[in-house]
What does this fold into?
Amino acid sequence: MAVDSPKGVIIAAVFLHAATTIAFGSDSVLKLERLIPPSHELSLAQLRAFDSARHGRLLQSPVGGVVDFPVYGASDPFLVGLYYTKVKLGTPPREFNVQIDTGSDVLWVSCTPCNGCPKTSELQIQLSFFDPGASSSASMVSCSDRRCYSNFQTESGCSPNNLCSYSFKYGDGSGTSGYYISDFMSFDTVITSTLAINSSAPFVFGCSNLQTGDLQRPRRAVDGIFGLGQGRLSVISQLATQGLAPRVFSHCLKGDKSGGGVMVLGQIKRPDTVYTPLVPSQPHYNVNLQSIAVNSQILPIDPSVFTIATGDGTIVDTGTTLAYLPDEAYVPFVQAISSSVSQYGRAITYESYQCFDITSGAVDVFPEVSLNFAGGASMVLTPRGYLQMFSSSGSSIWCIGFQRMSHRRITILGGNDPYFCNFDQVKLKQSNYFSQSSYTLFDCYADLVLKDKVVVYDLVRQRIGWAEYDCSLEVNVSATRGGRSKDVINTGQWRESSTKSSYTSDYYYLLQVVFIINILLFWNFRFL
It folds into this structure.
């Protein structure tokens, strides 16, 4: 943890009211004014951070730190459980709401004009459209640009006007297409627990002019997708390549109805974090799931069901709307849970969901589930980690959130469950069982499996780790660049200090201006 020096240190740099004659062929006068009031106080830690930033510029070495992207979610339980963040693009910067997705590489936003792009959102957010003509720093990526073919998850092509175009299909059947833009992304770089600076970097992102499927519907509408995959055009890869962020990112997604959480480009430090290796040379975050246990009993499932040798393997994906198991794993999984709660109620089926009418209403009667991975890491799921609940006056209906994947051998661990979060009385009464009485949704939890956990994606060591955690609490984050581990930074401290220290970025900018003026004076005095 960085230790602050005693406060009350006043910036000693006093810029003189001076009239300096500079020879540019004729005399001119340049007045220098004090930029920082003498009454303004900064700590030594802040001064050291400013100096570090300046030294980085002088050595042409970019300033790196923890990059903070705030996490938001739908607070209304009858709306879609969805995690998204805000990103600023262009000059001047404009803010866009984009869904967090570890299953894709491209950051894209809706652009003007756009065919099929929603105009309104039921997530209570204002939708925005990026206009390349309104950004003074935007430029099109041409077909001859090497970046046009640097992302293996997209189908890059060339439009008739020589623009690098793309087409992307998601697992739920939705899709987007458009062209690539090169512009600036603005973000907060956290240097210490009490100092964050406004940063910007050149960035290539998708400009969507066509959307299909669920992306068109206002129910889940956001401005775009925040791709956090391993491809060369992903957010993490582009910023890490420029030395602005470490090649590791973390999130902690709150599982209650308010949603939100923490997402940083950096490593959230938890002593109880367990890790499993990533499967090499895969486009997604594939891991080796080896077995599933219910009530500490390993289920009779052939381990090859979960591997890429016989299918698509096991993927960790925040953007997938449900959690999935292949047939060979889903059937024994449901049977084991049904057997353990058979004495407390009866099993019922609603569409593709396996549900249970439990008269006691207590979730404690359901067993604990353990997902066991290579390297000895286990992800333990409490009943609320794999169940959703309906409630009435007499009993409770608990439904397994995992879905059956019949046509593919693939296991997906994610789970924003939009279907449960959008049940209404009409849909409930369409079922023969639910028509007997009126049931209402009692709990709606976003991200079925990954909620209430610190999840770390370490691309340097090619591993994923997790630890149970209350994501409403502050976390400690470490950034590692070039083999050097930076100080651990506390999110609670930097966010609290940022609300009190909005001046920091302004003075940092002013110090840059003073530095440039000093350079100009130096070069001009050489010719006097």
About this structure: The chain is about 15% helix and 35% strand.
